[in-house]
Amino acid sequence: MSATIDTHSHDDDHDVHHHKETFVTKYIFSQDHKMIAKQYLITGTIMGVIGVIMSIMFRMQIAWPEQPNVLFEAILGKWAPDGVMDADIYLALVTIHGTIMVFFVLTAGLSGTFSNLLIPLQIGARDMASGFLNMVSYWLFFISCIIMISSLFVEAGPAAAGWTIYPPLSALPMAQGGSGMGMTLWLVSMAIFIASSLLGSLNYIVTIINLRTKGMSMTRLPLTIWTFFVTAILGVVSFPVLLSAALLLIMDRSFGTSFFLSDIFIQGEVLHYQGGSPVLFEHLFWFLGHPEVYIVILPAMGLVSEIMASSSRKPIFGYRAMIASILAIGFLSTIVWGHHMFISGMNPFLGSVFTFTTLLIAIPSAVKAFNWITTLWKGNLQMNPAMLFSIGFVSTFITGGLTGIILGDSALDINVHDTYFVIAHFHLVMGISALYGMFAGIYHWYPKMFGRMLNKNLGYLHFWITAVCAYGVFFPMHFIGMAGLPRRYYTNSNFPLFDDLANANVIITIFAIIGGLAQLIYLYNFFSSIFFGKKAEQNPWRSTTLEWTAPMKHIHGNWPGAIPHVYRWSYDYSKPGHDDDFVPQNIPMKEGEEELQH
Amino acid sequence: MTALLTIIIVLFVAVALWQMVKIFDLAQVGTSNTQVADDNDNKINGYLMIGFLIFIYVITILSFWYLGDLPLMSNAASAHGPELDSLMIISMVVIFIVQTITQFLLHYFAFKYRGEKGKKALFYADNNTLEFIWTIIPVIVLAGLIIWGLFTWNDIMNINEDDDPMVIELYAQQFNWKARYSGGDNVLGKANVRLIDIDRANVLGIDEEDPNAQDDVIVTELHLPLGQPVVFKMRSQDVLHSAYMPHFRAQMNCVPGMVTQFGFTPTITTAEMRENPDMVEKVKNINELRRDRKEEIEEMGQELVYEFDYLLICNKICGKSHYNMQMKIIVETQEEYDAWMKEQKTFPNSLN
Fold first, then answer.
1. What ipTM was predicted for this assembly?
2. Judged by CB atoms within 8 Å, which residues 200-239 of B form the interface with A?
């Protein structure tokens, strides 16, 4: 594309050699995208550990309801009198688990890490368009994490209205303890998080549009960059709507407005609210909430596409179709939010429209899945841990995605809405899948981040235990949901009707505990390899993309000399006419060689 | 006791994991010390992929075996239920065909094309025919499902006034349900939470002056006459609730500040459902499980022997006791219903 701008060649020397960095500017208030990526990753990891511990605790409550447990007593303190988990804290754990995993781990931790690491390196740029904004974005994220964590220690308990925080439950402290100070902190934390996300996204968009190196046309971009690009656009389009919802909710809570509240009688008194509608909040929330699902899954798709091609030693199959489906998913994801609200009381006609758009989104998703499978066909698959997680991603994406056909169908949704069927569906299709994408990315780009290799055998162990447990937890959950068990129940023992599901719930919890513990293998591998891992070679996976041409030792500006120019797309693996089974993007075309990608 | 057992199991698993980590860690020493997969890794993981494919199939079969009777997916007790169930079954069949094939291809390819030194992959970047095929097939299948789904949805949601449905209000509050029958005139009296007068026991905020309210009847157990179309008008006084009646394939949120609605026609009485062979077996199974937990259940103050009843349960997070917000539904013959209704107090008589 002729619009590609090469702004950097003249200030190469200036950028590279002049910095004398202090500890603070290098490790804390760094403006270097590679350091910021690591900061995002480690913060996201810590939040992830908290989120997973919470899930294991509430799973234990579901499996062994109201049984005393020293673990609860130790961790929950006053919220577990005599070791029995309190019903309020159960809802709070569910709520904060969802919030942390969706926003702090799979949005900031995944997208923040890899967009920052890979955008400048893969498009051939010295750094992000604005290093300063990038730093501000990370520190805003950090502050929002601190606020979210501190909300756990509030006297009346953290937010407990579900991660979707539907008012009036989230608006009225009389309705629920967690809707007091805990909810205020939740809203403040999310508002700051959104600001962080917006700054990050704007930076990604500007960088991708303006700072591609010479020859890096849009149709030569690795799919990772395409997904980061569409993700950032989705974030910019939809996150402000959640911000407005949060601000209006703050007004309703603190300043007596009635945006979302009307006709409420609670604890013996009539409240003054009149004319608002909780359904309005649901629209605003899901206008972000649904694109959010794709903000989570798209970067994972990009990482997986890249790793699959590299590990299969084959071009990604249907590069153009992949881009088209990324764009189609991006567009459609903004017009399907209503499928979360089929039974919210909105006009049934609207339900029909959203059924239509929702099932449409299955088409580009199916195209992607088939393209990944075809990429494996007749490949020379290098079974590195990153590749295993990529294959695992496709597997859970298919299993979880297929049940979307049921949930997206308004008629069928009537009976499985808000049951465990939904939990099984979205955990597989966006939770586990995105997590697999993130793990795949970490195993693949760890050498780039830390200059050392992760231990592959621990990686295998990590993958196989996680893979078995992920299915062990979420597959039976579909059936529990189809038996009608509602989600977010502290215990099911008040419904003898569901007594025959109790054993399945115990099995699920055992899988969850083992799966959670398996992550310790990964944590050990991750942190010990930073110091003791084997030193990485220049291009350990023999990949074609530009980041592997940059020196392994991190320097400001990424490349010591001029930025490499790009002469081909990023998927010249096993191309006939070349001795090696990969041709890096910065290798000029041979005479008579054709660019075969389209 | 269970808790202690759990902790011991967890500890053992943790120790076992740690040992494995150590073994794997040590196994590194002496080998080539590269952290990139070699032929041996490719082979082992290739075979494990086939193992995993079998695992997915096995867990599918086991789930069907132990959890597949899905009493809430068969024996629908409402007129629209069977149609919805057949749509569900068709969708499930489509899903399981696609799932079985795609998972097979994915894992089999991962096994079949596992890397070997010196092998070269096929440079195969694109094929428009293939892309077209797997765009068009989902389009056709989904078009079918969408059209069927939309017809079903419209059937369910558009309440046919010609059927002369009986109007019943479902009223939700933290943490219980009430139902208000509209009486002989089939019109509910006006109501608003601002009219609630706890001292006079006007807990639903009904306008005492409204003539339509005079024959209204408020109850805490929902009785429905067999075969009579019903339309529920739903209100909530505090937070969002969701009226979920799984056996009738019915669900709708109750939203403070507005009235939502859902209608259906009950087709199976409670007594008939109790004698349904599937239900008999399910209840028998549940009661066996309950006998094993006898002490625990008696401690909770529940009756040991479970007898089937239709339920209305809350399915939208609504606060601390969300997990125990339910109302019994009884479907009975018209005569039984009339006899029951005769015993209920009308709204004016229920006031203090």
1. 0.92
2. 205, 237-239
